[in-house]
Amino acid sequence: MSHDRFLDLPKLDLPTAPGQVSITAPSNIALVKYWGKESGQIPKNASISFTLKECLTRTTLSYAPIDHREKHSSGLDGHLSFEVYVSGVLKPEFGDKIETFFQRIRPYVPWIDCFSWRIDTENTFPHGSGIASSASGFAALAGALMGLEAAWSLSKTSAQSLIEKTSFLARLGSGSASRSIVGPMMYWGQHPNLIDSSDLFAVTLSQNLAPVFLDYQDTILLIDKGEKAVSSTVGHNLMHDHPFASQRFAQAQKNLEQLLDILNSGDLMSFCQLVESEALSLHAMMMTSNPSFVLMKPNTLAVIERIRAYRKAREIPVCFTLDAGANVHLLYPSAYVGQVLPWIKEELSVFCQNGQFIEDRVGTGVKII
Ligand code: PMV
Fold first, then answer.
1. pLDDT per residue over 305-320, tens digit each?
2. What is the CATH number of domain 14-208?
3. Residue 133 in contact with ligand 1 by CB distance below 6 A
4. Distance CA 65, CA 49 (A)
5. Which of 41, 232, 322 to mutate to test the pocket of ligand 1 (most atoms within 8 A of CB)?
6. How far is CA 219 from the centre of its chain?
7. Fold designation for 214-361
């Protein structure tokens, strides 16, 4: 599938007065991880994630039509005119990242040149909590732009094509953002067992999902709220000449195939085993790259040991997964909340910074508000 189809624009009736759109977009947590890409944000393997519900970015995107002669005389030719505010504070330091995003998406939404933009954004999760805001942040921005394009379109945009183009644009900001558009789960990256899968956008997993996964819980244990020791960009690049790269990409494809069966059967103990193995494989890649990174902290390991011991002793299907950081995502079915939450409070919260954790669960995706 080629990206050319996203170059086809509907006829638009562009506004002549300023306006705005507001949106919320969630974070997501990958079960089979994406780590390693080719240029153009093309993943080296397919990945799949739960869309979350509580960890959100809220963005208001305001626009004002620009007179192109004015733009020329102010020397803005070739650049987009925008400002970014985070929780009400102007953040010029995000300028480069947003400019890169705008430049990448420009061919697919050329009308962005006709406006100056103000992006007001905030996250529901604590700043510097170690939870990546790029997935929810770019999903929000892509969703807001597509909300405008659909509203200004003279023809009706189908829900399916709206989701695909939103995911396509979000991917150009951050790969994992492509999977934050709808719930309960999305996969991204070509996989032989998923005929509609694509490297260009994520697709909703709609078939064969055992009901237990529809309201799966993700309690995020905030082990270390420090800055990420390795940025995603650096991390993905380290996979280029990594000694285990090809085995890792093949393993991820195989794990996704197995996970699809598990998601269908609802075999929760197999789910736990596969999801934990994926998380540790991601960290193994970082530990064996050059330079190498150990992103787990002693408390990450302390929590992992307790989760495994609890699962064995109680025969309750709780398991962990990890992002590119020290925090632990504790995954379990909602039927066990009554047992698992008190255990988290009594035994696991002591390993969290300031005892903090976030009670999240599977959600439904971006929402225009
Ligand atoms: O979307 P990026 O480029 O920040 O990469 C994120 C990769 C992981 O979060 C570590 C794994 C994943 O699949 O979400």
1. 999 999 999 999 999 9
2. 3.30.230.10
3. no
4. 38
5. 232
6. 17
7. Alpha-Beta Plaits (3.30.70)
